[in-house]
Specification:
By secondary structure, the chain is α+β, with helices and mostly antiparallel strands. It folds into 5 domains: 174 residues, MoaB/Mog-like domain (Molybdenum Cofactor Biosythetic Enzyme, Chain A), CATH 3.40.980; 43 residues, Molybdopterin biosynthesis moea protein, domain 2, CATH 3.90.105.10; 90 residues, Molybdopterin biosynthesis moea protein, domain 3 (Molybdopterin biosynthesis moeA protein, domain 3), CATH 2.170.190.11; 72 residues, MoeA, C-terminal, domain IV (Beta-clip); 216 residues, D-Maltodextrin-Binding Protein, domain 2 (3-Layer(aba) Sandwich), CATH 3.40.190. It is built from 16 helices and 38 strands. The strands form 11 sheets. A 6-stranded mixed sheet has the order 7-4-6-5-9-8, with no helix packed on it. Strands 16-13-17-21-20-18 form a 6-stranded mixed sheet, with helices on both faces. Strands 19, 22, 24, 25, 26 and 28 form a 6-stranded mixed sheet that branches. β8 and β9 form a beta hairpin. α4 runs parallel beside α7 and α9 crosses α15. The protein is extended. The structure holds adenosine monophosphate and magnesium ion. The site of adenosine monophosphate has 19 residues, from α4.
């Protein structure tokens, strides 16, 4: 058994046992899945060159012609007999009579070059009979209207490409399995080949499942979310040699889902679903698979993190996969477990992932018994690359935007210690290490200041780890600066008391903190913050939303509340936006957040206190061009204006 919650296999009562009868290791699941699918022939199909990009050749291709097909001039000049020029020199020009034709590209010569004559020829023109060299036009002089003079010798073969010198007829041009790129298409076109036989792209049907899913482009109804997996999985299939057909999102209805799955399988080589694989109300797809064909489910529950609920099945020779619902989990399991199978079915070689070695600056805890993938953001340290974990949990899709790749913690390890050197698999092979690295507390104002840098082509990476995490990173020299907003109760000042050696404070901006409520709520409208809190406390039906311990905002809330612990006090989200969403969606009636966030959500706002959002700058990195560019942007007229417009007060 593979994790703390999953008990020994004889305990049939437990929740996990009920959910996943057997959890296989990643390796075991892959072995069983592949054994049920392979070997199998890779069917071929004819494709025109224009539609063959990215396909794998299914047979060897031999050149049907010579390229070039004739002896060809490489320069503009004159076709000559080299023997005629044997005695030519600076002081001894040789005069050649011009033949009565000009060989342009595409013109077949009609007259031989006899001794003492020359024929004008263009680059790409066929060399005429009798000629064995080309003299460049720059090395000749006209001599009357019908002759030229040449003052240097020519070696036989000079400036001629002989027939077949590029590609010889019968030569093996490309081997089966070669992936067709623009270079290959060029070679095939040069040989006149318009159609090739390639491995047929497996047709893969994609279905999302869930009552809550709405397709992008349509309005979101309450409690609904956008279907992310449909788009990601479709793209990832096309990226890896498949031909994806996205069939939309099907509600969690057994009959509807079964009909959709049967229809999808009838017309495709593979079926990929997402969602509905863990045991919850309405999770039905894995039950349907049992009736779709033999042998059915191969693995349901794989010791992966994220991705445990992955379900792998083979129905009458066709792979059927249910990816976990959370997009990040869906992505990782797809790339780790499905891509190898898909590529093999598509006749493609394994994916050539680019990897780099990097140091992990912090300890990363990992669940024993599960192969864990951790997204990381790469930054340049003093001694090579540093890999920062960026994961926000398997539900977070935005961590992808911050991540350059991922590292893997093997199932048998319960952590990756701080300072470990590890291999990072890159999401794209051309990762550019950022020019500016900001690690600390995030604020939407940051995006306003960094916008001109990004537009100027600098890569800016901002990693949100909170003020204290940012300070620690800055002390270790892992970022250029750390945005912080830490209130020191003793001195009653912001930020400066927390700096320490090697760091200096650059003032940022002030953020107005205050009470948010829904406009029109008579309990708050027109009151001061103190009055508003008193009013809220006097109404037992009034629910608040708090902030997490350690947040600057929390300190303000606790000061306002004193000893009071109203309903909602223990609801402690970690961000300004979560507070605004809770109030806007009636989960709570009031909370404390910053003015720009309150206004963006259309909420009422009662100002309470200004918070100082400043930068702990690593003095040693002060002179870096991107750092200077940032502080110039911060001080600029445009930067200050943008901040003010968004509701911040530049220091
Ligand atoms: P499930 O496995 O169906 O219980 O889903 C687990 C979580 O993933 C739930 O929060 C779902 O709302 C979410 N989810 C499922 N499918 C999708 C999808 N296609 N796009 C985005 N989120 C999804
Ligand atoms: Mg679902």
């Amino acid at each position: 058994m593979t994790n703390a919650k999953a008990p020994a296999s004889n305990n049939r009562e437990s929740i996990d046992q009920d959910q996943f009868l057997t959890i296989l290791s990643r390796e075991e699941a892959l072995v069983r899945f592949e054994a049920a699918l392979f070997p199998r022939p890779v069917p071929g199909e004819q494709r025109s060159l224009a539609h063959a990009l990215g396909c794998a050749l299914s047979e060897d291709i031999f050149a049907p012609i010579d390229v070039p097909p004739f002896d060809r001039s490489n320069v503009d000049g004159f076709a000559v007999r080299s023997a005629d020029l044997a005695s030519a020199g600076e002081a001894a020009p040789v005069r050649l009579i011009l033949n009565d034709e000009v060989i342009a590209c595409g013109i077949a010569p009609t007259r031989p070059v006899l001794s003492g004559t020359a024929t004008p020829i263009a680059t790409g023109g066929p060399v005429p009979r009798g000629a064995d060299a080309i003299v460049m036009v720059e090395h000749t002089q006209p001599s009357g209207s019908r002759a030229i003079e040449i003052r240097r010798a020519a070696s036989p073969g000079q400036f001629i490409s002989y027939a077949g010198s590029d590609i010889a007829r019968g030569e093996a041009l490309l081997r089966a399995g070669t992936v067709i790129g623009s270079r290959e298409i060029g070679m095939l076109a040069a040989c006149g080949i318009a159609q090739i036989s390639v491995a047929r792209r497996p047709r893969v049907a994609v279905i999302s499942t869930g009552d809550e899913l709405v397709q992008p482009g349509h309005p979101l109804r309450p409690a609904a979310i956008y279907d992310t997996n449909g788009a990601i999985v479709t793209a990832a299939i096309n990226e890896n040699g498949g031909e994806a057909a996205f069939l939309g999102a099907i509600p969690d209805d057994e009959a509807a889902l079964e009909a959709a799955m049967r229809e999808a399988l009838a017309t495709s080589d593979m079926l990929v679903l997402s969602g509905g694989t863990s045991k919850g109300a309405g999770d039905v797809s894995h039950r349907i698979i049992g009736q779709l064909g033999k042998p059915g489910i191969i693995a349901h529950g794989v010791a992966l993190k994220p991705g445990k609920p992955l379900c792998l099945a083979v129905c009458d020779g066709k792979p059927v996969i249910i990816l976990p619902g959370f997009p990040t989990s869906a992505m990782f399991t797809f790339h780790d477990m499905i891509v190898p199978v898909l590529r093999r079915m598509a006749g493609l070689p394994p994916r050539p992932d680019a990897k780099v070695t990097a140091r992990v600056p912090v300890r990363i805890a990992s669940e024993l018994g599960r192969t864990e993938f951790v997204m990381v953001s790469l930054v340049e340290g003093t001694e090579g690359l540093i890999a920062y974990p960026t994961g926000k949990g398997s539900g977070a899709i935005t961590s992808f935007a911050q991540a350059d790749g991922f590292l893997k913690i093997e199932a048998l390890a319960d952590q990756m210690p701080a300072g470990s050197q590890t291999e990072v698999t890159l999401f794209t092979p051309h990762v550019r290490v950022p020019d500016l690295v900001i690690v600390g507390s995030h604020c939407t104002g940051l995006d306003l200041v960094t916008a001109p840098l990004a537009h100027a082509g600098l890569v800016v990476r901002s990693i949100a780890v909170g003020s204290l995490g940012g300070l620690a990173a800055a002390r270790r020299g892992e970022c250029d600066f750390a945005p912080i907003h830490l209130f020191d109760e003793k001195t009653e000042t912001y930020n400066t008391p927390f700096l320490g050696e090697g760091l200096e404070l650059v003032p940022g901006w002030r953020r107005m903190q205050g009470i948010v409520f829904r406009k029109g709520d008579k309990r708050f409208e027109g009151l001061t913050a103190q009055e508003a809190v008193r009013s809220a406390l006097s109404d037992p039906a009034c629910i608040m939303v708090n902030r997490n311990q350690g947040a600057g905002t929390r300190i303000l809330i606790d000061r306002l509340l004193g000893e009071a612990r109203p309903d909602g006090y223990w609801n402690q989200p970690r961000s300004h936006n979560a507070v605004a969403a809770a109030v806007a969606q009636h989960r709570a009636d009031w909370g404390m957040t910053i003015a720009p966030v309150a206004h963006a959500s259309g909420l009422g706002f009662i100002p309470q206190a200004e918070e100082h959002y400043d930068f702990a700058l690593v003095t040693a990195r002060k002179r870096r061009p991107a750092v200077q560019a940032f502080f110039e942007a911060l001080a600029s007229e445009a930067g200050r204006k943008a901040l003010e417009q968004a509701g911040f007060r530049p220091a």
